[in-house]
Task: inverse folding
């Protein structure tokens, strides 16, 4: 993977082709905002961390079903 930042769409397409490193970039890019949102929602840091982790596990398991790779953030 080159050192230049990639668009979400490029990362998703690579992840759909089995590239876990590119999915890792998506994880790094979005874990904190999702975690922060969940902390505000649940008011529980431990629960928010578990839910954020579960979100990414599910996203990784279903990445091949995402028909519009540019929609990953949503």
Result:
């Amino acid at each position: 993977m080159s050192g230049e930042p990639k668009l979400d769409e490029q990362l998703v397409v690579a992840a759909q082709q089995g590239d876990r490193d590119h999915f890792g970039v998506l994880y790094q890019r979005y874990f904190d905002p999702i975690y922060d949102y969940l902390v505000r929602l649940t008011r529980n840091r431990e629960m928010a961390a578990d839910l954020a982790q579960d979100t990414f596990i599910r996203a990784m398991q279903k990445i091949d079903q995402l028909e519009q790779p540019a929609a990953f953030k949503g």
Observations:
- Residues 30-63 form one domain.
- The mean pLDDT is 93.
